[in-house]
Specification:
CATH superfamily: Ribokinase
Structural class: alpha/beta
Number of helices: 11
Number of strands: 11
Radius of gyration: 18 Å
Organism: Zhihengliuella salsuginis
CATH topology: UDP-N-acetylmuramoyl-L-alanine:D-glutamate ligase
Protein name: Hydroxyethylthiazole kinase
Family: Belongs to the Thz kinase family.
GO molecular function, one term: kinase activity
Helix content: 40-55%
Strand content: 15-25%
Catalytic activity: 5-(2-hydroxyethyl)-4-methylthiazole + ATP = 4-methyl-5-(2-phosphooxyethyl)-thiazole + ADP + H(+)
Largest sheet: 11 strands, mixed
């Protein structure tokens, strides 16, 4: 059953095996260049494509009805981002996730501004029934999808990451036809310290830069990077949980490097693309060793009256 009042155990540093997998998975993303289908919003499409290209994967911005499903069948992974969910794009998105499920293509859901806006919130819940591998959002978006919050201020969070733990765990363990007996999906919550959980285990990723919130697409492009790392992780026997966390570490390492050279948001954006291209697998491994911690989800009473 799904725990009612989950908390996290005391954090432990990432172990040597995790550090090694982080370096190896980053290398695999560079070497294999996963093909990432992006059904994303019109505001961030260009930046998202450039972030993928700088990092190694190949972007494909295919969301047209009649093509989106065909492409999801051949893509390494798919990103569904609800930033500007016009009617035709919603049709294409549903085609894409149905084909992804049929062909075993992992996909990432980014429920931009879920909560205060009815149409996209209902659509996000509909998409959840198609079993995304990862749901990535800020704390307010995740709480809204979990049914324990009303959303943020437009695309900005009004809740902090720690407050999202119960909602993130519940969202990870509940899915269409799923009873919470095992993880159903990974949930990634972005914030000052990111939280990634499958409902049983949790990983926190520190670092990054506040400047990511000052350029359009800083969070949305992360969804595409997560998709790429999950795709490469499945080919390398790395769990979706660890793959998503390593994607965050890669992204945060690049953001920190870019912030050191940037004079402000404009120069940061260009420096960030350069940093994504320059970060090495060993850099990511070192970042995981220094800035990433792991924990176990501790449950409260479940609906049956036992302990989660």
């Amino acid at each position: 059953m799904v725990p009612m009042s989950p908390t996290l155990s005391d954090p432990a540093p990432a172990d040597a095996g995790f550090i090694q997998r982080a370096a190896e998975l980053t290398s695999a993303v560079r070497e294999t260049s996963p093909l990432i289908q992006c059904a994303t919003n019109q505001v961030v499409a260009n930046f998202t494509a450039n972030v993928l290209l700088a990092s190694g994967p190949a972007p494909a911005m295919v969301d047209v009805p009649g093509e989106a499903g065909e492409f999801a069948a051949i893509a390494s992974a798919t990103l569904i981002n609800l930033g500007t969910p016009h009617e035709a794009q919603r049709v294409g998105m549903l085609e894409a996730v149905a084909a992804a499920a049929a062909h075993g293509t992992p996909w990432v859901l980014d429920p931009v501004a879920a909560g205060p806006l009815t149409l996209r919130t209902r659509f996000a819940h509909e998409l959840l029934t198609h079993s995304p591998a990862v749901v990535r959002g800020n704390a307010s978006e995740i709480l809204a999808l979990a049914g324990t919050g009303s959303g943020g201020r437009g695309v900005d969070a009004t809740d902090d990451v720690d407050a999202s733990v119960p909602g993130a765990v519940r969202l990870a363990l509940t899915a269409n036809g799923h009873d919470g007996a095992a993880p159903a999906r990974v949930v990634a919550v972005s914030g000052a310290t990111d939280l990634i959980t499958d409902g049983r285990d949790a990983i926190r990723v520190g670092g990054g830069s506040e400047l990511l919130t000052r350029v359009t697409g800083g969070g949305c492009a992360l969804g595409a990077i997560i998709a790429a790392f999950v795709a490469a992780g499945r080919a390398s026997s790395v769990s979706d949980l660890e793959a998503a966390a390593i994607a965050h570490a890669f992204y945060s390492e690049a953001a920190e490097r870019a912030a050191e050279r940037a004079a402000g948001p404009g120069s940061f954006q260009a420096a960030f693309l350069d940093a994504l291209a320059a970060v090495t697998p060993d850099d990511v491994g070192a970042f995981v060793g220094a800035r990433v911690s792991t924990a176990v989800v501790l449950g409260g009473e479940d609906p049956a009256g036992g302990m989660g």
